[in-house]
Amino acid sequence: MSALGNKQVMAQNIKMYMEDKGISRKEFCKRLGFAYSTVTDWLNAEKYPRIDKIEMMATFFGVSKADLVEPHTATHSPAKPPAPSQQPRDKGIRIPVLGRVVAGIPIEAIEEIIDWEEIPQKMAATGKFFALRVCGHSMEPTILEGDVVIVRQQEDVDNYDTAIVLVNGDEATVKRVKKQKEGITLIATNTSVYEPHFYSNQEIHDLPVKILGKVVEMRRRL
Fold first, then answer.
1. Do residues 98 and 33 both lie within one domain?
2. Is 138 an active-site residue?
3. 118 and 170 inside one domain
4. 85 belongs to the catalytic site
5. Residue of 24, 175, 181, 210 with catalytic role
């Protein structure tokens, strides 16, 4: 049975991932633009976050929405690192940070590499990855201009996942994807400035509108 809507489970998971990331409640609120009182209500299991807030937290923590919604057994909780003398060295896998992604050029052929990021070997084993430096303000306050998003290459995503999408041959954009029978809607977080944009199935084919990958993690240099 799904634990969707279970305030206690949500509170435990948010606390667990905050602890794993080593972030205080105050900093967490500042990074995501949440009211301190709202987060307190979530952590005290008095209120349950809306789906868009769950998506924002999942992107921030680099986990799936299910990881926030479903209960975790002890074996699924983030493991405590061993003592420094016993710390295993997990050599990371380097992936390119791209300044832009445009139509007609396979990602592996893009030469505009502006930096490099490392991802764990365990993550790298799940698919092909690239990183993209974000331009623009449409995903604020979750993702800011200059942030780097880690992207797993895939042609489809789940409903409301954050994805890299190429529209009409222009540069790729970062948006949440709402899937509908008649088409898809690309949704910005900063909806006060950037309105959601719907594309019909015909437009998806003709323009085209193409999903390049799913955003699995966001990185910010403070």
1. no
2. yes
3. yes
4. no
5. 175
